[in-house]
Amino acid sequence: MAAAAQLGPLRGADGSAVFSTNGISVLGSVNGPLEVQRRDEIPDEAAIEVLVRPSAGVGGTMASIPINERHYNFNKDAGAGRPSQAASMLYLLPPLLNAAMLALLSTSIPLAATLTSVLMAVNAGGAVISNPPLSALEEIASVHAFAFSTHGGLLMVESEGSFDYGTWEAAAEAAKSGCLEATAETLQEDIEMIGSDNDSLGSLLRATVVQRVRDTEQWRQSIK
After folding, report:
1. Collapsed DSSP state (helix, strand, coil) of residue 55
2. What is the largest CA-CA distance in the chain?
3. From CA 27, how far away is CA 13, in angstroms rounded?
4. Residues 67, 48: contact at Cβ < 8 Å?
5. Contact indicator for 27, 81 with CB cutoff of 8 Å
6. What does DSSP say about strands 74-82 and 46-54: parallel, antiparallel, or unpaired?
7. Which of 18, 90, 124, 206 is the most exposed place for a label (fewest CB within 10 A)?
8. Beta 140-149 vs 154-161: how paired, if at all?
9. Phi, psi angle pair for 100, to nearest 5°
10. Could you tell me the sign of the dihedral formed by the alpha carbons of 138, 144, 148, 152, in that order?
11. Is the dihedral of CA 147, 152, 155, 158 positive or negative?
12. Around Cβ 147, how many Cβ atoms within 10 Å?
């Protein structure tokens, strides 16, 4: 199933996005700055809280990350929901990261870099499978979650299963190709890739943002 993305589905959030792939749909939201309770206040620090809430059951805070910027009496909060059924947390990690990245982009917060994340699986025969369906994970030897910056830098890797370095390297190369932007002559080509079977998550991210900008600026064109 091809990946799909949408920016701004939540009206009450500062930023939000939906990222869907292989039957998993993650809704991410960003809110902040938020006033904290006095007992939790650290006057000279601000923090980003990462929350994960399943569609059923109780969620929790995954991390509270201090940032090197002073915002007295405030913190920033980012939340993401995930499906209630999954065979592995690694299977959920790339959709969660992609949804969080898109939600941050929808807030128009200045970012030093952007990222895309993909799941790679390796079967018993050594074949590398990109973005495998959940049912295929029962027959694989190892599974790997990668995240790359738009410049091709490896930002994160998590692996499970039995594999050697050669297998990991092959999975990493395939993941990098899947995360980086495919070559497109025009932005319109990227936009036409939304919802298609194109494997480049970089192109999907770029096309989704460009389409959102065009939609929000449409009123300016109508009054000219």
Report:
1. coil
2. 61
3. 12
4. yes
5. yes
6. parallel
7. 124
8. antiparallel
9. -65, -40
10. negative
11. positive
12. 21
Cα dist. 4→20, 99, 161, 200, 201 in Å? 5, 10, 28, 11, 9
What's the pLDDT score for residue 70? Answer: 36
Q: Which residue has the tokens 């690694």?
A: 90
Residue 13's identity, in one-letter code, is A
User: Taking Cα atoms as reference points, which of 183, 188, 116 lies closest to residue 147?
Assistant: 116
Query: In whole angstroms, what is the distance from residue 156 CA to residue 154 CA?
Result: 6
Contact (CB, 8 A) for 74 and 94 = no
CB 150 within 8 A of CB 114: yes
Beta bridge partners of residue 19, listed in sequence order: 5, 26
pLDDT band at 194 (very low <50, low <70, confident <90, very high): very low
Helical spans, DSSP H, in the chain:
89-106, 165-179, 187-192, 201-216, 218-222
**Percent of the chain residues past pLDDT 70, beyond the cut:** 72
Provide DSSP, 191-204: HHTTTSS---HHHH
Tokens of 17: 């996005």
- Amino acid code (one letter) for 197: D
Indicate the pLDDT class of residue 218, thresholds 50, 70 and 90: low
CB 152 within 8 A of CB 172: no
Distance CA 21, CA 1 (A): 6
